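Feature request, filed as a ticket because there's no other form

It would be nice if the structure record came with a short human-readable summary line next to the tokens. Right now we just get the raw output. Example of a typical job, pasted below so the devs can see what we mean:
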Amino acid sequence: MKGDRVEIVVDAGDTTRTYEVVASRAGRRVETAVRRGVVEVSEVTRTGTVVRTARFMATRVLALVEQPVPREDASEAAVRPLREDPES
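Raw output as currently delivered:
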């Protein structure tokens, strides 16, 4: 969903670097995968086409923070009134 983001903190020798991958358009999402010693963070469209990918050596990754956009829960939406009645 647009606004989803993943922050990756990487050990760069004597310092750390922070990278961010963000779902930049509506309908896109950010997926993470760890394969064969590589951490891969990709921005993906609805159809599954990869738009951009960031790859890091797993031994260098210090933190991987997924920050989803707050979504309204369907059960809360059903309970909330559509409008307030001034008479009641």
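Something like this underneath would help us a lot:
The CA atoms of residues 73 and 79 lie 10 Å apart.
The first strand starts at residue 5 and ends at 11.
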